[in-house]
Structure formats: structure tokens, C-alpha cells
Design a protein that fits this description.
alpha/beta; single chain; globular; 5-stranded mixed sheet; 16 helices; Peptidase_M49; Alpha-Beta Plaits; 4-stranded mixed sheet; 13 strands
């Protein structure tokens, strides 16, 4: 495990410029991320993750954040405490004990007797330690993946290992029943029945009747996965609703709540259509089961929460770029004279997206990305639109890294001077022209295409 670098994300100058209504709105939205953090630990890969998370918080509370007092009491040495804080920082940054990028497991560089000594701080820390004392250092598993000797995943919990074939089988059932996979997990019962665990506040169980009952496995839909944490998320979204800036925000908050309560992702898709129309908000947000990076099958998503404040000056610069986006699209390598100079691989009308430079106030995810293009639903992006955001304070902080091991010492001053601006504009163009352009060629209905199937465009 490499030593982590800890960065300070500056936000006070923007938060202090908000009205009292906007401050209350951002506060309640940010509080949701506290419960989303627990949700992430439950959904993204590893059974020992949640007790480790609670253990770190329990130790923090036991010393009121004064870690040196634990050393002063003689519980552990300075080196022990430094090693523990190194592990805790890496764990919290990755929302678990597997790296968000790469999914490899990391273990603490801490003597186990020192960790056990820390566990004596309170009755609660003792109980939590007992739940992970063996698994925190166990290798294998080495990484996230379908459960087995070398990998594990909480997307597929239970004593009976779920295989890739099981995931493929259940996907066909879910498609037939119009059940989206993003907010689900899959469990295999002792009798071979496949159980779809759907995240929702509401509880319920139903059996899906599909195909030949003699040859098809029993498939059950169990609602209520993560119900307690989602209930708290909904409570804070409801409080935020009281301070929303406009009807559009109140509408997508209501659609968030409806989706999280019922597990219905059609309501969540509706929230994304509404969210897109909330142009240039002072307080931006992203909530929901968004990215499927950590699912070995690539469809089940972790629950993310981002609350951020817009920087008006930086956003104005990005808006000017967006206003001239058609000119840049016509310079892409596949652009030809057709379609007003954009070529056949682009939509006839490019709808300029809302492109904001935002500063993170609260961000809970296994990967803190520098820029985002959302929603992830291609049909909504193509038919309704999308938003681009650049998380500016995250990028600025990263540019202050203590070391750059792959840069020659003679080139380091030049690299430091230009790294942030080069990185910033690379991400800007990645979001605007990478995610934002391109036409998804599909069969919209039987025999109806959005291109000429008899004369399809030539791959450039």
C-alpha cells in the first residue's frame, strides 16, 4: 500500500457567497452523502468493509479526533498511529479496502497487536474489530470479482458462489421483466434459487414466472436491500426540498425519493430528464446508482453522492467554449461535408450541454473523478440531452502533489507550471467532445433505424 497524499479541497469562498436558503439546501443534500458512504460499503464489493468503516469512526469518536492523545496514553506508538492513519485515509478515499482504480486489495502496514490495542478503546470498537480481524489482512482474495478463492464481491453475497453464468441468466430474466440492474445485487440460495436484491425503502418479495418452469431456475425479487440507509437519504432529500431554488429542483428531488423508496428505476430515469433541465444551478448534485465499474459483470452500480457549488467565472469560460462547439465538431477526424460539415457519425442537431465548473462540497464515491458527463443512459443523452461538469477544486488539489516520480528532475519546474492547465483543458475537451459528441446508431423499433442499413456509414 503506497503512502497516501491528503489534499485540502477549498470551498469556503463559494459557500460563503450562498444565500441562507442555498446554504440550507446544500447542507441537507451533503448530509445524504454520510448515509451514501455506508451504502457504498454495502454494495461495492467486500463484507469486511462496513465494520472497518464503522471501526475508524468509532476510534475517531473515542478520542474526539485527537489521535495523538491515544499515543500519549501509551496505547500504541507514534509509528503505529501513523500506520493506522495511513490505512484509514486510503480506506476512506477508496470507500473500502480495495483500490477504486484497479480493484486490488490493500492491507494495513500495522502490527496486528497494535490494531488489537486500538480496538480496546471502547466496547463498540471491540465488537467491530472481532468482525474483521482476520479478513482485513487476508490475501487471497486479491481483488474484486465473481466470488471464489481469489476474488470477492458484495454484489453477489451469500454462502453459495454466484457465477458469471448465473449473472448472464438473471440478466435475461430481468430484461424480460423490465427490471433495471443498477440498483440490484444477486444472491444464490442453497436450493439453487436466484434472488434479486433490489435497493428500496419498501419491503416485498415476489417470484418471477418466466419460461419453462421445469427447466428454468426459480427467480425471486426481494425488495428492501439497504432500506435503513435509503430511508435516511430520503429524509434528508425531503428536508432539502424545503430549500430548493425552483420547481425543477423540487421535481427531481421528488423523483429521487420515489425511486429510492420503491426501487423503481423508471422514476430515477425521470429524475435524470428533469435534472438535465436544471440549467446552471448554484448548488449542483449527482445522486443514485450511477457507475458500474466495480461489478465484475459490469451492470450493477455503486450509489454515489456529489454535492457541489458552481464557480460563476470558470463556468462563464466553459459556456463560451460550448457556444463554439459546432466549430470544433467539424474539425474531428471523421467529419466530412455531409450533415453541415459534421459527418454521418454525428447527430444532425448538437444540443449544447450545460457545462459547469463546480467545486465539491461533499463527494462519496470509490473514485473521485475530475469531470463527469451524465446521465449514463445513452437514450436520454441522445434524445433529451446531458450535463458536463468539471470538479475544479479536486483538480487543483491534485496538481499540488508532493512527488511526480516519472518526471525528470530537469523538466519538473516546467511540468509543475503547466500540469494543472493542461489537465484541466484535457478533461474539458474529453467531456465535451469525448462523451458529448457521436451518434449512437440503433434499430429504434423493428425495421426502423436512425441510419440507412442498406448503405451504412463507413468506419473511418
Amino acid at each position: 500500500m503506497a503512502s497516501p497524499q491528503v489534499y485540502r479541497l477549498e470551498i469556503a469562498h463559494l459557500f460563503n457567497g450562498l444565500s441562507e436558503q442555498e446554504k440550507h439546501y446544500s447542507h441537507h443534500m451533503a448530509r445524504c452523502s454520510r448515509f451514501v458512504g455506508r451504502q457504498d460499503h454495502l454494495t461495492t464489493g467486500f463484507p469486511e468493509s462496513l465494520p472497518i468503516f464503522d471501526f475508524i469512526l468509532a476510534l475517531y469518536q473515542s478520542c474526539d479526533g485527537d489521535w495523538s492523545s491515544i499515543v500519549d496514553e501509551g496505547v500504541v506508538t507514534n509509528q503505529d498511529m501513523a500506520s493506522f492513519l495511513e490505512y484509514a485515509a486510503t480506506f476512506l478515499s477508496n470507500v473500502g479496502n480495495y483500490y477504486g482504480s484497479g480493484d486490488q486489495k490493500f492491507v494495513p502496514r500495522l502490527r496486528m497487536d497494535a490494531l488489537e490495542a486500538l480496538a480496546t478503546r471502547s466496547p463498540r470498537s471491540k465488537v467491530l474489530y472481532a468482525q474483521f480481524k482476520d479478513s482485513i489482512v487476508a490475501i487471497p482474495p486479491f481483488s474484486l470479482g465473481f466470488p471464489g478463492e481469489r476474488a470477492q464481491s458484495s454484489y453477489y453475497p451469500g454462502p453459495v458462489a454466484v457465477t458469471k453464468n448465473d449473472a448472464e441468466c438473471i440478466s435475461r430474466y430481468m430484461d424480460a421483466q423490465h427490471i433495471y440492474p443498477e440498483n440490484t445485487r444477486l444472491r444464490k440460495a442453497e436450493d439453487g434459487a436466484l434472488e434479486i436484491l433490489q435497493a428500496s425503502v419498501l419491503l416485498g418479495e415476489s417470484e418471477l414466472q418466466l419460461g419453462d418452469s421445469l427447466s428454468s431456475p426459480v427467480v425471486k425479487l426481494l425488495k428492501g436491500d439497504h432500506a435503513a440507509d435509503l430511508e435516511k437519504v430520503c429524509e434528508n432529500l425531503q428536508k432539502a426540498n424545503e430549500y430548493a431554488a425552483n420547481d425543477t429542483q423540487r421535481r427531481f428531488l421528488a423523483e429521487y425519493i420515489e425511486s429510492f423508496r420503491t426501487g423503481n428505476l423508471e422514476s430515477y430515469r425521470d429524475s435524470q430528464r428533469t435534472w438535465i433541465s436544471d440549467q446552471g444551478p448554484k448548488v449542483e448534485n449527482i445522486f443514485g446508482f450511477v457507475e458500474p465499474y466495480r461489478d465484475p459483470y459490469g451492470v450493477r452500480a455503486e450509489f454515489e453522492a456529489l454535492v457541489a457549488l458552481a464557480d460563476p467565472f470558470e463556468t462563464k469560460l466553459l459556456t463560451r467554449l460550448v457556444e463554439h462547439s459546432d466549430k470544433f465538431i467539424c474539425r474531428l477526424p471523421w467529419a466530412i461535408a455531409e450533415n453541415s460539415g459534421k459527418g454521418v457519425f454525428e447527430k444532425t442537431l448538437f444540443e449544447p450541454p450545460d457545462f459547469s465548473s463546480i467545486h465539491s462540497l461533499a463527494y462519496c464515491s470509490s473514485i473521485i473523478v475530475p469531470g463527469i458527463n451524465l446521465p449514463n443512459y445513452n437514450d436520454i443523452r441522445q434524445d433529451v440531452g446531458f450535463k458536463n461538469v468539471i470538479i475544479a477544486n479536486r483538480m487543483a488539489a491534485e496538481s499540488t502533489a508532493a512527488t511526480w516520480p516519472f518526471i525528470d528532475s530537469d523538466e519538473l519546474p516546467t511540468f509543475r507550471n503547466h500540469k494543472h492547465s493542461a489537465y484541466y483543458w484535457w478533461v474539458v475537451l474529453h467531456e465535451l467532445l469525448g462523451h458529448g459528441t457521436g451518434k449512437m446508431m440503433i434499430e429504434q423499433s423493428t425495421g426502423q433505424y436512425n441510419f440507412d442499413p442498406g448503405n451504412p456509414p463507413t468506419n473511418p
